[in-house]
UniProtKB/TrEMBL annotation:
GO terms for molecular function: ATP binding. It comes from Streptomyces chengmaiensis. This is ABC transporter ATP-binding protein. The lineage of its organism: Bacteria, Bacillati, Actinomycetota, Actinomycetes, Kitasatosporales. Gene3D superfamilies: ABC transporter type 1, transmembrane domain (1.20.1560.10), P-loop containing nucleotide triphosphate hydrolases (3.40.50.300). The chain crosses the membrane at residues 83-108, 128-148, 194-220, 226-246, 327-353. PROSITE patterns: ABC_TRANSPORTER_1, ABC_TRANSPORTER_2. It is a multi-pass membrane protein.
Length: 668
């Protein structure tokens, strides 16, 4: 066997303990048997769906007072006058309902005490008018509750959303980069804010049902104390049926969510613009459509089964409720025959019991909704509280608008969950007017060091000082304001071209025209903007009418212009020209590295294209979180170390036949 064959064999991974068998001739694209939701992981935004269905009645009832108090506190903070109006009118409305029932009994007494004669009908007119008055007053009060609710609910949502976004937008970078934090924040944003708006009306309806039930009990106790047990006998079966029905609906909804997520995997692929070209070139649409159809048929069967089960539960509940109502009315008839209760009072009791049944059903329905939706609101408030603990430091000392020297001394930084440090004792000094390049392999610590310089990460050991002052003594926001970062994948703001440049200075609406033009010309963005339909005012997003979509290279020019416009004392360029064409890249480096738009600025360039760092004043070579070489291009080439080997390897790629020899030489 030849030497080259032996070397190739050394690169082949060792065989596994058990050899991989041939694949089967057919394989399912998804679950074939059993529950089609079993293969789905629970989504971060559905963790509380159906929580009320698994909670006991005692758990739900025990938590309702705290939930009501929470919503009341939020409403009071948002609009005290409207909240007070809603509470007072809700109580008055419940009182009107109770008085209306009592007045209705009075009408019945006038009409049926000794038969409905014309005289008794005329005598009952004042009582009828009183009933009508109570009903009208209740309608007005409920309208007042709705108006107050309409005023306070949007204010609660606005206050919560503004505070939530303000907090989460300012938390430290390491929190944002945590996957669990990402899920929590998006869950709070997607569901917490949505249910925070809905839950106010639900609490109002819950209170209305509870007060209605209390009012009904009060009316019955006035008519005859023995009627209270009859109310329980009538409403408890209905309540039990309502609980089972509500839980069945919650379970059904949770399953429906999982089923829809399963089938949307295919619909998303069929509609996704990024997958469109490959789907068509592979003619894979038919296979996806077949699997989509198979799943939708199964989902339809599941929906039918769930619907039938729900109907049977409702039927059983109504049957039990009917038995309870029959017993109630039998007992009521016995009371009438025994003379315990006048006929008019008996008719009033029937009205009260029917009202009580309706109130209890609503109470259970809204109790389940409020219980579950409050979990989402609690999530939202918990994220806000956690965000307050993750905000960057504030201090009276502000970062200077000009800096002569930035000293990095023995800095260590390790990412959460990692054992190997990303920065392992890094030390160097940057001076005003200097351009310094960070180079090295992927994962060597270049970008991490840049983020430490920008104040996005704090050193776990060591220090970063601006003119002798540790940045940890400065207000974090002020440090960020004095650093301009241009990244390889910049943010594509869906705003005007001008706003995309001024955003780096904290404004979307104000600009310094000459300064903008200078930055745009230096970055090559002036030509991009000149070709747009409305030039500076053109919206850079297809989501808007007349909006334009830029290419990756064009966006890179806009991002460089944004960084230059900020005119910060520290400019960090992290692979800023990776998507640019060669002439554009050359123009940017001419402006940034040789044109020196600001002579007192410190410029740090991170690049894998070593030809772009040749003219830098110094080059720092990173390896495994340490700086292993430092010097100018000529000095590093003369030492023949790692930088020289990488540069030679890249340069040989532009010379036919030389790449293999350079690679072999670099590997020695």
């Amino acid at each position: 066997m030849s030497e080259s064959t032996d070397a190739a064999a050394d690169t082949i991974p060792a065989p596994r303990s058990a050899p991989l068998p041939l694949p089967p001739t057919t394989v399912p694209a998804g679950p074939e048997d059993g529950d089609v939701t079993d293969a789905m992981e629970e989504a971060y935004w559905s963790v509380h769906d159906g929580a009320a269905a698994s909670a006991t009645v005692r758990q739900v009832l025990a938590r309702l007072p705290r939930i009501t108090a929470l919503i009341g506190r939020l409403a009071w903070q948002a609009d005290r006058a409207s909240t007070l109006t809603a509470v007072v009118c809700q109580l008055a409305s419940a009182a009107m309902a109770a008085f209306g029932l009592i007045a209705s009994v009075g009408v019945l007494q006038h009409l049926f005490a000794q038969g409905p004669t014309p005289d008794r009908v005329r005598a009952a007119i004042p009582q009828i008018l009183l009933v009508a008055g109570f009903l009208a007053a209740r309608a007005l009060l409920e309208a007042a509750v709705s108006v107050a609710q309409a005023r306070v609910t949007p204010k609660i949502r606005t206050a919560l959303e503004c505070e939530f976004l303000s907090l989460t937008a300012h938390v430290r970078l390491e929190a944002v980069e945590d996957a669990d934090w990402h899920d929590e924040v998006h869950r709070a944003n997607d569901r917490g804010l949505f249910y925070a708006r809905m839950i106010v009306g639900q609490v109002v309806s819950l209170a209305s049902a509870a007060l209605g039930l209390v009012g009904t009990a009060g009316v019955l106790s006035v008519l005859h104390p023995a009627l209270l047990p009859l109310l329980l006998l009538s409403v408890l079966p209905v309540g039990a049926a309502a609980v089972h029905s509500a839980r069945a609906r919650f379970h059904s909804f949770k399953r429906w969510n999982a089923l829809q997520r399963r089938v949307r995997v295919f619909s998303w692929l069929l509609l996704d613009v990024d997958a469109a070209a490959e789907l068509r070139s592979d003619t894979a649409q038919g296979a996806l459509l077949d699997e989509h159809r198979r799943l939708t048929v199964r989902i339809a069967d599941e929906d039918t089964r769930l619907g039938v089960n729900s109907a049977l539960i409702n039927l059983a509940g109504r049957a039990v409720g009917g038995v309870g109502t029959g017993i109630t009315y039998t007992a009521l008839a016995a009371m009438l025959i025994a003379g315990w209760l006048p006929l008019a009072a008996g008719a009033g009791a029937v009205l009260a019991i029917q009202s009580g049944r309706s109130s209890l059903t609503q109470l259970i329905e809204f109790a389940h909704l409020v219980y579950e939706h409050a979990l989402w609101v609690d999530d939202l408030l918990a994220v806000q509280e956690r965000s307050r603990r993750l905000l960057p430091r504030t201090a009276n000392v502000r970062a200077p608008e000009k800096v002569k020297e930035i000293a990095v001394k023995d800095v260590y930084f390790t990412y959460p969950g990692k054992d190997t440090p990303a920065l392992d004792g890094v030390s160097f000094t940057l001076r005003a007017g200097e351009t310094v390049a960070f180079v090295g392999l992927n994962g060597s610590g270049k970008s991490t060091c840049a983020k430490v310089l920008a104040g996005l990460y704090e050193p776990q050991q060591g220090s970063v000082s601006w003119d002798g002052i540790d940045v940890r003594e400065m207000d974090a926001k002020s440090v960020h304001q004095q650093v301009a970062c241009v990244l390889q994948d910049p943010v594509r703001f869906p705003f005007s071209a001008l706003s995309n440049i001024t955003a780096g200075t904290g404004t979307l609406t104000e600009a310094e025209p000459q300064r903008v033009m200078t930055a745009a010309r230096a970055a090559g963005a002036d030509g991009v903007i000149a070709a747009l339909p409305a030039q500076w005012k053109t919206l850079l997003s297809k989501r808007f009418k007349g909006g334009q979509q830029l290419s990756g290279g064009q966006w890179a020019k806009i991002a460089v212009a944004r960084g230059l416009y900020k005119a910060a004392p520290l400019l960090l360029l992290d692979e800023p020209t990776a998507s640019m064409d060669p002439p554009s890249e050359h123009a940017v480096y001419e402006a940034v590295l040789r044109g020196r738009l600001r002579t007192d600025q410190i410029t740090v360039l991170i690049s894998h294209r070593l030809a772009s760092v040749v003219d830098c004043d110094r080059i720092l070579v990173f390896d495994s979180g340490r700086i292993v070489e430092s010097g100018s291009h000529d000095e590093l080439m003369a030492t023949g170390g790692d930088y020289a080997a990488m540069f030679t390897l890249q340069a040989s790629g532009y010379q036919p036949g030389a790449a293999s020899a350079a690679a072999e030489e670099a590997g020695r």
